[in-house]
């Protein structure tokens, strides 16, 4: 129903059936709800802007359908240490233990290398917003 002619035809049809404006809006919203739900299920990490581009529906209607009708909300994944493997946990413990030992040396701080607050990643990290995804109340945490 993204085509404007199709929408106008649907509105005229509902008017001829004697439906009120609220009922017409509700019926159109129901049709869009299924379409938007399919788009979100394809990739839950899409933003509302991306869904708007794919569906041809306004931003406010997409947001209303996602939050009110489908009960979805945008949730960012949290880093939880329990998700680390035993090997990763052991590596963290060893690194901290060796730093704890080295702090007792006299020239420890003169050997610490600092930078100009530039981060160099060995991979392309995502921001918290980029990694967030849509979830329903019944779905598990990301």
Automatic annotation (TrEMBL):
Signal peptide: none
Domain of life: Eukaryota
A molecular function GO annotation: nucleic acid binding
Alphabetical list of Gene3D superfamilies matching this protein: Ribonuclease H-like superfamily/Ribonuclease H
InterPro entries attached to this UniProt entry: RNaseH_sf (IPR036397), Transposase-MT_Hybrid (IPR052709)
Classification via PANTHER family: MARINER MOS1 TRANSPOSASE-LIKE PROTEIN
Name assigned to this protein: Mos1 transposase HTH domain-containing protein
Organism of this sequence: Cinara cedri
